[in-house]
């Protein structure tokens, strides 16, 4: 037998018992026995009342908890309990760990207590006492294992038992949680205000629910609000919730939402609950998450749902085609982050402006009183830098629309608010660069180059000023949808709709991720496996085939085939992920294709000496693979031609240099042909892949070329985009 004293983390049972007065324990014991023996126990009576003893054995390793209840049950039945360690009587207490290794009747068991008293009374208390002890010890053991796991991961947050406790056993289960080292969340309904979906729906909104409960509960009780999305969480925090509970979010979503929320509301406690289990709780560990609550007992799950509103239908985001703009002032977040000529300041590529024109024109055609356009440009790091001014964009936009565009020298403040307060019908405003203000991103760099952060008060004031510029909020900036910046998630207007560009992006990615035509192929490039692991893992659940090229293929090939990769990119951390990726692919019947030959070079330069090397030959020392070879291009193109949905993220080689561009060029040509001639749906992720499509002239042949590199990557990784979550939801069948 081995035993680990756990008093270093858990105090003696008397301190845990302080939550339950002695008279309450006695009352509970009487009710348990009354329930178990409402009239008469014929079996116990048959053995008589002779004085005898019984031994309590522990049969599985774990934490002991529930002694006070066990003792009280037998005390009520005129029996005594003596606790001991093996054969020696000792001060066994709740919070001790036991690992039984002694053989008793062929099983590992350890004797820990002896009960003495009338035989009939021991039998009458046996079932109730064992059930309470088993349940209490089970909860404490699970709690202890979770706290140990948190310590191993150096997570400083709080593990809490859920609010789902057994009627009549609540205090027992709360006691067990304390013994195991986790928080009880709340002892009962009077300990804290918890606003769940039923409360919110019956009150009408999160804001109204918080306002009403604060009026009733006063200042002495904390208020926690159950939130289903980032926008719900922001509203709860904004209206004064002390704790925001992110409900039923997967680890990736929870971490992303918590991180965004932490930047905006650093003093709010963030809890995650729902869907958290022992096997995935570590995935939720994050410095941005304060509390993780999960079930500590095994029981069936039930949920009481009110019928104030029917919320069973799938929720979608509001789009501008469903909004009445008549006479309204519209604040529209766009992505005018266009390249400018360094000498003249003129726009060298206006594609991003052109992409938003349908949204701008539609809003004006539908009778909007004004439209105020907000955008960032470059990285001015929270300070005014005229080389990043949006003034040239205003001139370009005016030319494209054929209508006057008023350029405002700032994006917030009294002068901007006054200009937008009561404009002439049909007015078009373009505000100065949002990122001239540190409050947009929440951080920046001062004049001395030091990193600085905006205070919550500064951010709140900045957002309040932006909110005054319109009556309706429209977001058409998909390229920044993965950023929880003020203009993306902080303009608190009741109507928040997606523009046509945002809508198109979301529809294509939804089609690719949720309802693709098959066979479904993913083409993935990039340098490091570790950088793309979330993308690979998420797509393995979706696709039928996968092509892995670019720099990261060399890590796979070295691990899987012991290939000599010369000076090619080798991702040491990523190498440890290769076997698990391949196993999951095999389990899910996903075929992964790697290059079989390579364009290798002696240096990274347009005039480098190049060779074609096969996988069997390997890559010589002092040379590196910079593109896939001719055999690989042919094989990849054949795979492409057989598929009906193709998603591409990351080039297959260093396409910026012509001598290493052929792999990306030829496979992209095959994708274009599959799209235009074979009926495939092709989606090109933003960033380098979109740049390659533009360079080779294949943009028009693709079904969709995304305008957002980071945003499209995070969508494909299965993450929540804060800018999308912030949009209003509508019901649909």
TrEMBL record:
Residue ranges of coiled coil: none
GO molecular function: ADP binding; ATP binding; metal ion binding; nicotinate-nucleotide diphosphorylase (carboxylating) activity; phosphoglycerate kinase activity
A single cellular component GO annotation: cytosol
Cofactor list: Mg(2+)
Biological or metabolic pathway of the protein: Cofactor biosynthesis; NAD(+) biosynthesis; nicotinate D-ribonucleotide from quinolinate: step 1/1; Carbohydrate degradation; glycolysis; pyruvate from D-glyceraldehyde 3-phosphate: step 2/5
Lineage of producing organism: Eukaryota, Rhodophyta, Bangiophyceae, Galdieriales, Galdieriaceae
Name under which the protein is recorded: Phosphoglycerate kinase
One of the GO BP terms on file: NAD+ biosynthetic process
Highest taxon, organism lineage: Eukaryota
Function: Involved in the catabolism of quinolinic acid (QA).
Domain Quinolinate phosphoribosyl transferase N-terminal: from-to ranges: 48-137
Keywords attached to this entry: ATP-binding, Glycolysis, Glycosyltransferase, Kinase, Magnesium, Metal-binding, Nucleotide-binding, Pyridine nucleotide biosynthesis, Transferase
Assembly information from the UniProt record: Hexamer formed by 3 homodimers. Monomer.
Ranges where the Quinolinate phosphoribosyl transferase C-terminal domain occurs: 139-300
